Amino acid sequence: MTNIQCSECGGQAGPTDWRCKTCGGSLDLVGLPLVDPASIDASDFSLWRYRAMLPVERRFSLGEGMTPLVPVELDGARFYAKLEYLNPTGSFKDRGTTTVLNHLAACGVTQVIDNSSGNAGASLAAFAAVGGMEATVFVPASTAVESKKRLIRSFGGVIIESRDYLADVYRAAEETTYASHAWSPYFVLGQQTVAWETWEQLGRRAPDVVATPVGHGGLFLGFYRGFKALRDAGLIDRVPRMIAVQSAGVDPVARGWEANAAKPPRIQPGPSVADGILVDRPVRGRQILQALYDTDGFALRVDNEAITAARNCMRARGLMIETTSAVTAAALPQIIERIDEDADLALAFTGSGLKDIGGSKPPAAPG
Predict the structure, then answer these.
(1) Alpha-carbon distances of 17 from 20, 38, 93, 135, 345, rounded to whole Å
(2) Using CA atoms, how far apart are residues 115 and 124, in angstroms rounded to an integer?
(3) Mind listing the pLDDT tens digit for each residue in 13-23?
(4) What predicted TM-score, i.e. pTM, was given to this entire model?
């Protein structure tokens, strides 16, 4: 039976809890079903093809998941691009949002809140709309992109702008259900499906190396845990080397990895064009670093100039990624130096560049 357990003290949590009431730690799902290839529904072209491994009842869906895995060559380097920006609301967040809100709907929840710079908020508003829920999104007044705020409103979401939006959303969470993409264990659960898709798309094998942008690290941990579940089921020999890529302006995970620390240090954020990963205190920072250590992985940082150049380069090749997504492509020269020449590499492209058009802002630090 699947239970919700604190990652810090091991205490049990309730179905709508977003963090441990005893110690404040993050929550994880334990006792998840093993991955069973025979249970995959090949007729379902969404992430719900894996519903036998997801302890959530599907009540509504927008067809999320099953994003393309495209071979790309750049300056002689070959990699697979996992096009997460082709999810329904234009970002990888849809994988986690659908499992969170379907779970909460089964609990009778009708009103949800989250905090977001844009993509998570748009995803929450869209899935809340199809699920018959009311969604309120707290956004940082100093860094939220206008085009993403318009997208949230277009799905019917209510926006509250705040200069101390984390404190404000935590206060609101005392009275309203907090459907947090950073805290909810059901969000990471949905992200695991990206690994299972990649495994299927490669002919039921895993790539050697996987790189993702990292803010709170939901997609990163989804890849790691999804491949770990495949290994535990005896379907692959080992988990790919995991690479966490951050902006040089906001890089707590990179600093933690360089120091061989158990958790990321507190940092003073600097300017960054990668608005989707402006996270100076990742909720699951310990788990991200542990995944790096467990897989002989590593963390990298890239500067604004490299990020912008990589974004433009990918768009010129027909891949309409947002600026944040480009951090993995910007890190490609550093990655190639550190991995075997014949290693199969997968890069996650996390958000749609269509959201950037008409909505870009100058580099900013988190508010």
Answers:
(1) 7, 33, 20, 18, 37
(2) 10
(3) 999 999 999 99
(4) 0.95
